[in-house]
């Protein structure tokens, strides 16, 4: 299987750039597994389509402000997306431009409040970066990082909480579980009942 098997044309004018004010008023596509018929509804009507005994699995991780914009020691710009905390201040990351962040590259963020060094280039193009900071890493990240948005979202995020699910608890995701963004506390209570 290739990732290209999942490519499809999606006109830009059909991609929402900002979330709806009322989360559960988003559109909901329905697929009848028996007939293949496609229908349309709104997310707030989800309880009508579920039966007793159905199971919903919810990812309760909070999206980290895992996108860091900084500079290399040469003065060139760099963007780092934190993917996996490997412990000891080392994270597996995506870097852009990737070719300009070889082993040993020193990186600086927020007037030197956070710095890093590429300590390993992983075979898939990711980098392992050891970060140096003076306080608690997650607090530094809250100040310097940005919520990573999908590349098809061009608008700047005004309220980072809008990119969290209403049931998000534990920090750790590099991206929101987007299907979960449509739930509200009222809808969750209705589903529970």
Question: Summary?
Answer:
This protein is mainly beta and 193 residues long. Helices cover 10% and strands 31% of the residues.
List its salient traits:
193 residues, mainly beta, two-stranded antiparallel sheet, 10% helix, 31% strand, elongated
List the topology elements:
Elements: E1 27-31, E2 38-42, H1 46-49, E3 61-63, E4 67-72, E5 77-87, E6 90-96, E7 106-109, E8 114-121, E9 127-133, H2 137-144, E10 170-173, H3 185-192
Parallel strand pairs: 3-10
Antiparallel strand pairs: 1-2, 4-5, 4-7, 5-6, 6-9, 7-8, 8-9
Characterise the protein shown here.
- By secondary structure, this protein is mainly beta.
- It contains 3 helices and 10 strands, in the order ββαβββββββαβα.
- It has a 6-stranded antiparallel barrel with strand order 4-5-6-9-8-7.
- Strand 7 and strand 8 (114-121) form a beta hairpin.
- The longest helix has 8 residues, at 137-144.
- The model has no long low-confidence stretch (mean pLDDT 90).
Strand order of the largest sheet: 4-5-6-9-8-7
Structural class by SSE content: mainly beta
Mean pLDDT: 90
Reading the helices and strands in chain order gives: EEHEEEEEEEHEH
Number of helices: 3
The count of β-strands is: 10
Distance between the termini: 41 Å
Any low-confidence stretches, pLDDT <50, length ≥5? Answer: none
Largest sheet: 6 strands, antiparallel, barrel
Q: Indicate the percent of residues in helices.
A: 10-25%
Backbone shape: elongated
Beta-strand residue percentage: 25-35%
Q: Compute the gyration radius: what is it?
A: 20 Å
